[in-house]
Q: What sequence folds into this?
DNA sequence: CTCCTAAAAGAGAATGATTCTCATCTAAAT
DNA sequence: ATTTAGATGAGAATCATTCTCTTTTAGGAG
């Protein structure tokens, strides 16, 4: 994900291109495992050693509101952020609280077909996300 | 869910039967829509007007640790609690942040069969929870 | 290039859901 | 009845996150 790509993503959404926003998006795309705000701050502190924590949260909020980033949360951890906007599922380790993206188009299709036939009265489906809870082997 | 049933649930798990625990479990089973700690406190304040907030959180924690209650969390809301321990899915309204339980045994079987054939290297599955995101019609 | 404006950043205070601490109480076993 | 370990109470502490108000700045217009 080049600097130019990141810049385009911001302008496409009508967001101003600020150095802070560029850096935070770069962090999200480069860090693995759904970074927390703190992970992001650590990543960008080389270029932005004095960035305000409040600013990071504000930028993240703007990115989420404008659908460039998703929030990811489990029952036992603080908020994490995900730059993959395409619908995907999560493998969640109940021991370590680690979340792994799980992409499976066959499964997507299976679920889409299932709910196409299923009647959920009064509920309009926008997304279907599977959380597979288990444990990673050592 | 009778008082006796609630008492049995506690003793089965080796938990002491205290009035606070009885009241909190009753609240969870009787309140709808995955009550928050505050909902629970409001419910039991008639019988326990002075219960400490810290105690409620502690009791909830013990109930969760002993698998009598589940935590339920979304990206945009505080922690909620669920007394239905049997595996089930959630319909989540993205506008109102409301969570509805969704029980569907046919779907459970479909998913069990799917992942029985699927190879997830190094991951032992314990539970599969579907979150169907959408909006409730008015 | 300059000017202007609205949005964004900064610094640190505020918030509140939740956890912690330590003393007291009590459920339940004997 | 006594004892003990676990539970509760009261309020302080924690910390992830949001708020507030001032200053800065991106980007559009001329």
A:
């Amino acid at each position: 994900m080049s600097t130019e790509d990141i810049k385009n993503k911001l302008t496409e959404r009508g967001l101003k291109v600020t150095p802070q926003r560029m850096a935070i998006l770069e962090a999200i795309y480069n860090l693995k495992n759904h970074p927390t705000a703190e992970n992001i701050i650590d990543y960008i502190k080389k270029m932005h050693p004095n960035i305000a924590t409040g600013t990071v949260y504000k930028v993240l909020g703007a990115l989420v509101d404008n659908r460039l980033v998703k929030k990811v949360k489990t029952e036992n951890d603080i908020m994490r952020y995900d730059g993959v906007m395409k619908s995907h599922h999560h493998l969640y380790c109940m021991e370590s609280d680690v979340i792994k993206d799980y992409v499976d188009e066959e499964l997507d299709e299976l679920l889409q077909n299932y709910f196409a036939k299923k009647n959920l009265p009064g509920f309009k489906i926008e997304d279907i996300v599977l959380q597979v809870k288990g444990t990673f082997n050592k």
The mean pLDDT of chain B is 92. Chain B touches chain A at residues 71-76, 79, 91, 93-94, 102, 104, 107, 110-111, 114-115, 118, 120, 122-137 (CB under 8 Å).
